[in-house]
Design goal:
With 148 residues, the protein is an alpha+beta fold. It contains two helices and nine strands, in the order H-H-E-E-E-E-E-E-E-E-E.
Length: 148
């Protein structure tokens, strides 16, 4: 009887785990596991790299925020103005994670070529780095915004 109870509890726990980690995206496909790590709000803190290596930081008063929702929706906001709305997807190749933006709509300002490619992403819990696959290895650094 104890063995049967153990089996039933194990099946229940496995079902919950599978449901949690294999949720579906808005379009019905499975959600990439990295989505749960990238989902949230991130504020741009600096960019580094370039042909002549440099570091760029936001000017005083500028808050550039990227918002990633678990359903694949993306928004870029400058201060309180929505600049870009898009969809994003993540893939993994050779143990590296990559992000791609699709269905890009520029709401305000010029169209940004940043959204035209696939970029490697790397992050810890509080730092997101989106690299440029070009030879100058330019990278954009973001820090997570924690809800209060």
């Amino acid at each position: 009887m104890k063995a049967w109870r153990f089996i039933m509890e194990s099946v229940l726990l496995m079902s919950i785990a599978i449901t949690t980690f294999w949720e579906c995206s808005e379009k019905g496909g499975p959600v990439h596991p990295v989505v749960f790590r990238i989902a949230g709000e991130w504020v741009w803190i600096m960019s580094t790299g370039g042909t002549y290596p440099r570091m760029e930081r936001p000017e005083a008063g500028l808050i550039l925020k990227d918002v990633y929702l678990p359903n694949g929706s993306y928004q870029r906001v400058r201060n309180d103005t929505l600049l870009v709305r898009a969809r994003y997807s993540l893939t993994t190749r050779n143990s590296l994670d990559f992000i791609r933006f699709t269905e890009v709509t520029t709401v305000w300002g010029p169209r940004d070529p940043y959204f035209n490619s696939v970029y490697p992403v790397d992050f810890t819990n509080d730092t997101l780095i989106i690299g440029n696959k070009c030879c100058d290895m330019f990278a954009y650094w973001f820090t997570r915004i924690h809800p209060e």
